[in-house]
Amino acid sequence: MIRVLIVDDHPIVREGVTAVLERERDIEVVGAADTIDEGLRLAARLHPDVVLLDMRLPDADGASGVTSFARTGHGIVVFTAYDAEDDVFRAIQSGARGYLLKGSPAVEIALAIRRVHAGESYLSPRIATKLVSGVSQPRSRTGVLSPRERGVLRLVAAGLSNREIGHALSISERTVKFHVTALFNKLGAENRAQAVAIAAARGLLPGQPSA
Question: What is the distance between the alpha carbons of residues 172 and 59, in angstroms, rounded to a whole number?
């Protein structure tokens, strides 16, 4: 049984998500809180496997709440109405393993929880599509990156593994490896960290002007 703690300051969200998850045989909502402080106290007592966490709470804003729970070692799925690229990347870099938009169907909420509990990552399809389409078209020393390569670059920079990128983009892990290799060749990089560093230097990552 996957134990879930919901941290959201809107009662209707907590009640609605709880009702939805109660239909899942392998998921149990063990508690709900409306602030980070209360959520951390409940987490210490209830030991949830996954925390479903809003990004905007009265006592924490943005990624600071994610950081607070990441320190406790819980799997974190951000559950928010905000889809700005900077929000997504800050959440992932702060320790979130999933990012869901409010209004997601019940099956997607349950899938995200299961993926994160299994040690994988999950991005809402709407978020993954936005990240892929939002990458500015860079020119590399051997040619222009394809749209798919640009999308993979964005997810590599977010820290996702090849397997996780495959899940996010609905392609095989083998195909992801092919695109990552192409990225290395075009950017002149020898590994993922170097590819991200080169991309950052060229202004190819979120919040940067294109080089």
Answer: 41
Q: What is the pLDDT of residue 131?
A: 67
Instruction: Give the pair of three-digit tokens for residue 54.
Output: 């809003």
pTM of the model: 0.69
For residue 180, the model assigns a pLDDT of 92
Of 79, 17, 8, 3, the C-alpha closest to 47 is 3
User: Any idea which fold 134-201 has?
Assistant: Arc Repressor Mutant, subunit A (1.10.10)
Long-range (24+ apart) CB contacts under 8 A made by 71-74 are 71/95, 72/40, 72/43, 72/44, 74/5, 74/43, 74/48, 74/49, 74/50
**Quick check: do 2-123 and 134-201 share a fold?**
no
How far is residue 76's CA from residue 52's CA, in Å, rounded to a whole number? 6
Given this model, what pLDDT does residue 136 score?
Answer: 44
Distance, in Å, from the CA atom of 3 to the CA atom of 50, rounded to the nearest integer, reads 6
Residue 65 has φ and ψ, to the nearest 5°, of -65, -40
Phi, psi of 135 (to 5 degrees): -75, 125
Sequence spans of domains, the chain: 2-123, 134-201
Buried residues in 48-67 as b, exposed as e (16+ CB within 10 A): bbbbbbbbebeebebbebbb
Quickly state the pLDDT bin for 43 (edges 50, 70, 90): very high
CATH topology of domain 2-123: Rossmann fold (3.40.50)
